[in-house]
Write a structure and sequence with these properties.
Blueprint (H helix, E strand, L loop, with lengths): L1 H21 L3 H11 L5 H7 L1 H4 L3 H37 L4 H32 L2 H13 L1
Helix pairs in contact: 2-5, 5-6
């Protein structure tokens, strides 16, 4: 009876999680992003502080172009990490072998590495777009969080 109860509660949890993920707002996604990797989200900081940074129209366009080209893939990878972790938790509850769970963990780790590499490329691109004073302000804003 206890196993059935746990199974039903787990199924309910994942059903609610899936429904919530479909309706996830930007704030929730940013929490997932922070969980999935330790690298700052430079585009978000730059976009939110465009006026304070005194971005030119050309700079704004370049930042938005980067976002347009990379946001979807980053979103998919972050959600893959979140879903992979949920699957590992369920696998553990289901008594799946350590080898299988380790394999799942390796896949999540690889995705995390890809996220970090992508965010580092983003940092490098933002450093090309911004001048030194603007970049210095960005790093100060990130550090102040």
């Amino acid at each position: 009876m206890k196993k059935i109860t746990i199974l039903l509660l787990t199924a309910l949890f994942f059903t609610l999680s899936a429904a919530q993920a479909g309706n996830m707002g930007k704030g929730q996604f940013m929490k997932h992003m922070a969980h999935a990797n330790p690298v700052p989200n430079y585009v978000s900081v730059i976009s939110k502080n465009a006026q304070e940074l005194k971005l030119s129209d050309a700079q704004k366009a370049q930042v938005m172009e980067w976002k347009k080209q990379n946001h979807s893939k980053m979103h998919e990878m972050v959600m893959s990490v979140i879903e992979g972790e949920k699957k590992m938790a369920q696998a553990s509850l289901d008594g799946v072998s350590a080898d299988e769970i380790n394999s799942m963990a390796e896949a999540v780790s690889k995705t995390r590495l890809m996220i970090i590499a992508g965010k580092t490329r983003c940092r490098d691109r933002m450093m090309e777009i911004l001048d030194d004073a603007q970049w210095s302000k960005v790093t100060a804003l990130v550090a102040a969080k």
